Predict the 3D structure of the following.
Amino acid sequence: MVQFYNATNRPVAVINLDPANEVLPYIPDVDISELITLEDTMEEFGLGPNGGLIYCIEYLEKNMDWLVKKLEPLKDKYLVFDLPGQVELFTHHNSLKAIIEGLQKEMDIRLCCVHLVDAHYCVDPSKYVALLLLSLKTMIQLELPHVNVLSKLDLLESYGKTAFNLDFYTEVQDLDYLLERLNDGPFGKKYQALNQALCDLVRDYSLVGFHTLAIEDRESVLALAQAVDKANGYIYGGLDADQMMQI
């Protein structure tokens, strides 16, 4: 996405807030490793990867002044934050939420969450329902405009055959059809009431939906960029044909 923004002449800055990112595929404008790293944390406190990562984010929360100072020279750019993938940070731990709220208050910036998940979850009904619950809980926890994305869409066929067409999964259509698949087999039949309750929960909130991304497809990247711009309020008029040819 950063390459896409650069190709369309949008000033962009990348902020790495993943302390486990030791080998980055990009040059960050701000890097949490200058403040703390997962490796050092694990070694000093005898923590495992999960506990160490939570400690690092809690440490960042207590040192928000460092982050704000680093971001201040970049405030006129489009900021892209690279965050850890540990789900606890997004679903029920409060440090990341506090960091987000602090940035919005201190810097008066508009943020949105772009939640990337592999499209292969669509192949397995139980994994897809788990994905819906994870996305829903993250949306409720962070209280940000949210863009959920099924990534690696170009590889979907290699994962197996989906039970329904793609629109069913992106628009989270009638989950009763999915229930029939969930309740197949002895394990599914044993938990029919639970399956029904989980699907009802997702349906009652009616918040979750997905965009798609095939990173090699320029139109796919453009559509996602426009969705993100809409979610975070960035004034962006779209790309014309000449700009598309430059990418």
